[in-house]
Amino acid sequence: MAKKIAIPTNGEVLDAHFGRATGFTVFEIEGNEARKVDVLSTIGLQHQHEGLANMFKGNGVEVLVCGGIGGGMINGLTAIGLEVVSGASGNVVDVANLYAKGQIVSTGSVCKHDHDHEHGHEHH
Length: 124
Fold this sequence. Notes:
Elements: E1 3-10, E2 13-14, E3 23-30, E4 33-41, H1 49-58, E5 63-65, H2 71-79, E6 83-85, H3 92-100
Parallel strand pairs: 1-5, 5-6
Antiparallel strand pairs: 1-2, 1-3, 3-4
Helix pairs in contact: 1-2
């Protein structure tokens, strides 16, 4: 049975910031082949965990392959049974094909919104 994955998309390239993506390209994975089936618009849903999660579930998406993603978003998506694979980059078709061949391993890359300084996580 085919598995559906979704990749946050900016043009033909993976959008590195999951929460700001305005569209997701959906692929069906059958064996080690990826077939593009749809593009979902997320205009108005950016950073809305529940709205995005419901849209993915409603479209049969099981796995999200992305670059950086916030911890809150990961929790919201995994809570409803979606798998999140982070740390990917490049052309969305290439990313889908790499995923289909089992060549994308999640880096566990959690995106924090400020990349230029620590968030005061000192240990006392």
